[in-house]
Amino acid sequence: MRAAVDTEEHLDVPRMLSRKADASGEAVLVALTEEDGREGTAPRAEDLFAYAELLGEQAGLLAVRDPLPGVTEVRQALREVDTADHAVRLSDTDLVLLAAAASGTAAASPRLELYPRDLSAARALKLSQAGSTLLRPASDAELVSRVLARFPDLANPPRAEHMRDLLKNAGYEVRRNSQGLLSLAYATQTSAPRGFARAFSSATAARLGLAPAELARQRLDEARRRGGFVAVKVSVLATSAVCDELARMEGVFAVNVTALFVNMLRQIVEDAGRPRWETVLAADSADASPAARAGFARLVGATWLRLEAHIVAVGNGGIVLLHDAAPLAHYTGGGELLARLVVAARQAGEAPRGLWLFCPMQSPKDSPRLDDLTVAVIPGDAEQLFVPDSFADPQGDRKAS
Length: 401
Hints:
401 residues; alpha/beta; 5-stranded parallel sheet; two-stranded antiparallel ribbon
């Protein structure tokens, strides 16, 4: 790139020019000039440089916000910077990456967030929700990798030897097992909203004379207001009735994961023009050839991306109820998608604002499960809720009593 730019800049009519993005000179902006020297055929290089500098200034302001702005807010703020109709020429990814590069102080995450490069290790740990990884034992190096996956360009990234102290400073109670792995102490409820679980404990409900269905409804009403993640556990027999009742709640947007997954997968196949749908179905089998299974996995990966974008869009300001969500448990990448959505729901300013995962279970008072997938929640009651069968029947509690 350097050779190409140097060569062009020595021509009588160069097709590209360069400029240092900041005083450090570590980043260099390269802009195309007007095509063939004819005015009006393309933006002037100086205009493009000025536009990039304005983006950089805005990126710097966004990155130092506390809390960090969400992806939607970042994109909107950067689009509003444009004064010469240049933003529409850039994809969302290019827009955010250009703004970060031009700022000199901000960096862009893989999720297109903006954050300061000098973000402290303690704050990076907290924002990345690395502590939630400790619902199962994890090594210090795994936790560092979790932070860097969210914030890859930190000037001072966390170090494995400091991880336990960083977790304690972030409010996590941790312990180390005989294999040297860290895990959350059972009493920890770091990410739970303060007082939420206590306010709606069974003992409190008994004192207030609340029936189980009424208790569940009050907790769900609170969850609608605050956002966040809730695994909604229900008996298999009451699945349909309870799901319908939840979907009717104000501000709740129901997403049938199975139907959407199949429709999006089929659309991807149709857009590509191959393979035949029957071939795709045959590849979804343990008896299929390794090549067929690999091809199917690529299609599923593309489907997850579309599904995630849909859920994020639907959940911008509302609660997303994921029901009939078995594909998340059955297909590679589904668990990772669910984890990303849960982290986003826990984070203020992110979409979805709230995420409810509908979990039909044979024993719904056990820990939440989605078919064979254990759903990771913060220990305690803040992120899981048993909804009794009577929830879907206004007279049910009175009948039971």
